[in-house]
User: Which sequence fits this backbone?
């Protein structure tokens, strides 16, 4: 016989038993120290105790974090980034001259269908790439050589709520995890003191996007992966400050006792996976009381930096503060940040059914300088190479007028534009195109599943391997579809 006899053997001595037990205890102690220092890769056991422990990606990705500027309400691609000279030529003509299959049900208001309408905005070539950009974006136009444009996007619904769920969750109905939840499930968080996924909504009293928190929910994934919504007014998070009269030691002792009780219960009921997330939420909330106020303290930024984002400008101050907060969050290890421009619907968002010129001028004016400032700031700090910035809404808008006192544009699920920058994106390129008038995606069509597959790919995640078993089936963000848009990957 070679080596030590097995422990269950009567030949094993007490000395051998103590030696092996001592080695095991030492390794457990070492593992704990490495975990506290962030030097230990997460495995299944780690994630049962800390669902947000960092995890290695499937392969080495260029991006490690995401900031998604969600252009809520459905921006008009033909008035922003997708230049259509034919709309000027055919202004006032019937769309049926170009597409005999057009029906009033394509849009949302069947009784207000007008003729083709040219954009009220001028387009000019910008950057070395000569990208044609609407005058809506004087500041963002300076960054087109860092952006990859997708002009052939299409989706499955012409109604806000299902279209929002489609763009956020990969399905046109509620009950599925959103992109941010899938990303934090797949990669964990780089910060132990802040949430892995943060959401900011419109702070001007215009409400939440349709579907509300389901747009950043974790659904059947463990609750630890849902987005943390920072309230736009008042305290951003409940109970962020320790209650008056409660010492830190008293609070810590209470949490330790609660954790002991919860852990004992969890050991007796291992199938209740949500309890681990609940335990971690208490601990994260405690750590956030010291970390979060500093992370969102934009007043500590120098004045020239605040000015670069547009803070202090009444037109864009609110969104500028959110963009600067986003940079501070990803700089401190937050994995996914989503900022919503616009609130519930119609004139409270990019939903320009009436007066497309006034509607888009307002919301572009609120976001143009702040997002440009964010891109410039990330680049100057060396963060843009690892931070993927996405600009996209839930669908596009029709090239025809929606009849009203001041004409607008109705919903268009057949075509939308998105752009991506940083995080492994090839800048100054365009993928796909819409037809002559911007009604439908024409060449190299991109479904929402393809956009999601590409975002995951840039983060080092294979969208076909990132799955979660629920109700007897393995689910994924891209369901049973999705292809990476290789032409925009550097």
Assistant:
């Amino acid at each position: 016989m070679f080596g030590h006899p097995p422990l269950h053997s009567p030949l094993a001595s007490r000395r051998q038993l103590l030696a092996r037990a001592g080695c095991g205890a030492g390794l457990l102690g070492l593992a704990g120290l490495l975990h506290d220092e962030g030097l230990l890769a997460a495995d299944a056991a780690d994630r049962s105790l800390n669902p947000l422990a960092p995890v290695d990606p499937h392969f080495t990705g260029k991006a490690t974090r995401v900031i998604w500027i969600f252009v809520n309400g459905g921006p008009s691609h033909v008035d922003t980034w997708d230049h259509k000279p034919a709309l000027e030529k055919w202004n006032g003509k019937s769309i049926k001259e170009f597409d005999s299959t057009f029906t009033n049900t394509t849009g949302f208001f069947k009784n207000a269908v007008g003729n083709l309408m040219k954009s009220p905005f001028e387009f000019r070539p910008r950057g070395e790439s000569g990208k044609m950009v609407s005058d809506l974006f004087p500041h963002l136009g300076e960054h087109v050589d860092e952006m990859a444009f997708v002009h052939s996007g299409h989706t499955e619904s012409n109604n806000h709520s299902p279209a929002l769920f489609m763009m956020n969750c990969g399905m046109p109905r509620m009950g599925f995890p959103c992109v941010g939840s899938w990303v934090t499930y797949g990669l964990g968080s780089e910060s132990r003191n802040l949430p892995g996924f943060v959401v900011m909504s419109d702070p001007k009293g215009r409400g939440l996007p349709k579907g509300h928190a389901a747009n950043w929910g974790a659904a059947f994934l463990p609750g630890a992966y849902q987005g943390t919504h920072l309230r736009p007014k008042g305290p951003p998070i409940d109970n962020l400050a320790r209650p008056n009269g409660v010492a830190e030691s008293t609070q810590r002792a209470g949490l330790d006792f609660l954790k002991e009780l919860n852990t004992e219960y969890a050991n007796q009921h291992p199938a209740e996976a949500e309890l681990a997330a609940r335990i971690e939420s208490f601990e994260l909330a405690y750590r956030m009381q010291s970390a979060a106020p500093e992370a969102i303290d934009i007043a500590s930024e120098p004045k020239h930096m605040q000015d670069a984002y547009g803070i202090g400008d009444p037109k864009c101050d609110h969104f500028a503060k959110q963009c600067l907060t986003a940079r501070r969050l990803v700089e401190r290890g937050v994995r996914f940040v989503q900022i919503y421009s616009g609130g519930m619907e119609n004139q409270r968002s990019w939903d320009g059914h009436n007066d497309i010129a006034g509607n888009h001028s307002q919301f572009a004016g609120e976001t143009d300088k702040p997002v440009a400032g964010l891109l410039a700031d990330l680049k100057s700090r060396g963060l843009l190479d690892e931070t993927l910035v996405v600009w996209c809404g839930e669908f596009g808008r029709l090239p025809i007028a929606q009849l009203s006192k001041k004409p607008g544009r109705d919903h268009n699920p057949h075509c939308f534009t998105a752009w991506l920058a940083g995080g492994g994106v090839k800048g100054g390129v365009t993928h796909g195109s819409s037809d002559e008038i911007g009604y439908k995606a024409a060449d190299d069509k991109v479904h929402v599943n393809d956009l999601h597959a590409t975002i995951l790919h840039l983060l080092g995640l294979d969208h076909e391997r990132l799955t979660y078993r629920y109700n007897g089936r393995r689910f994924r963000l891209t369901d049973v579809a999705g292809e990476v848009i290789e032409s925009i990957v550097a």
